[in-house]
Design goal:
This protein is mostly helical. The protein has one helix and no strands. The relative contact order is 0.08.
Length: 49
């Protein structure tokens, strides 16, 4: 079984459409800490240019 988000696959025949799917993200308890660490990494990389 091949699952894809494209309307076609070269060399393959589409036999079933599943319809619209969606996802959900549950962030952990350290969301703010992780977010701030990401910003810190970003600014550190930016300052090294």
């Amino acid at each position: 079984m091949i699952i894809t988000t494209t309307p076609s696959i070269e060399g393959k025949k589409i036999v079933e459409y599943k319809g619209i799917v969606f996802g959900e993200v549950i962030s952990g308890v350290n969301f703010v800490k992780d977010f701030m660490a990401g910003l810190s990494d970003f600014w550190r990389a930016f300052s090294n240019l």
